[in-house]
Amino acid sequence: MVRVVVLISGSGSNLRAFLDSCASGDIPAEVVAVGADVDAAGLDHARHYGIPTFIEPLERGAARDAWGERLADRVAEFEPDLVILSGFMRLVPAGFVHRFAPMLLNTHPAFLPEFPGAHAVRDAFEAGVAETGASVIVVDDGVDTGPILAQRRVPVRDGDTEETLHDRIKVVERELLAEVVRDIANRESAIEEN
Ligand code: GRF
After folding, report:
1. Does the beta carbon of 12 sit less than 6 angstroms from any atom of ligand 1?
2. What is the pLDDT, as a whole number, of residue 188?
3. Is 29 left (phi over 0), alpha (psi -120 to 50) or beta?
4. Does residue 81 belong to any structural domain of this protein?
5. What domain count does the chain have?
6. 194 in any annotated domain
């Protein structure tokens, strides 16, 4: 079973979908901990499943690299096979990336390399594009520049608000993440069997 640590910053609706899919067996993975940089509402989803949570705040003006090392130590305590950033709104420092990549994924609500960064949905919405998308990437030292593992187009509909568009994108993010983690889990078990 693939051991997963998920990092969030917000409502954690994608986390909840992932937890539900793991609990149902739809994704052959076990979330062993959920961490956040703030007391995120989404941590309640982990508590719902009795999964350990931790908060590693980035204090204003604090050294990012030192925070990255503390965060990495917290994550490493749970001996993850895979770390997933799911609505984690901080750029993880290079030291963190090098500690876990390539087993360090991020879901992004755009069709990368279109609309990188923290406001992807707003940017696409304001650009007036007819379609945007969702992507799952391996995190590297850049901002949403890592290798793309899965991505799919999402149409922008007449009457959409940024919120209705984001909700439609999140559904696809969850499906892509499930596909990627299922693939990783199947490859891991295939390697272990040989
Ligand atoms: C997701 O769209 C994620 O890709 C983006 O922020 C959103 C998180 O939503 N970085 P939630 O916290 O899972 O509801």
Report:
1. yes
2. 82
3. beta
4. yes
5. 1
6. no
Question: Cβ(114)–Cβ(132) under 8 Å?
Answer: yes
Compute the distance between CA of residue 64 and CA of residue 157 in angstroms, rounded to an integer.
Answer: 39
Which residue range is the domain that position 140 belongs to?
Answer: 2-185
Length of the chain: 194
What is the spatial distance between Cα 144 and Cα 106, in angstroms, rounded to a whole number? 8
| Smallest CA separation from ligand 1 atom 10, residue | 87
Q: What is the pTM of this model?
A: 0.96
Q: What is the pLDDT of residues 51-63, one digit of tens each?
A: 999 999 999 989 9
At a CB cut-off of 8 Å and minimum separation 6, what does 97 contact? 104, 139, 140, 141
Tell me the pLDDT of the chain averaged across its residues: 96
Q: Please tell me the distance between residue 115's alpha carbon and the centre of ligand 1 in angstroms.
A: 15
- Whether residue 194 has pLDDT greater than 80: no
Ligand 1 contact via 132 beta carbon (within 6 Å): no
| Token pair of 37 as six digits | 């940089």
Q: Which residues contact 48 (CB under 8 A, 6 or more apart)?
A: 19
Domain CATH code at residue 127: 3.40.50.170
| 189: pLDDT strictly greater than 90 | no
Domain for residue 193, yes or no? no
Active site residues: 108
CB 11 less than 6 A from any atom of ligand 1: yes
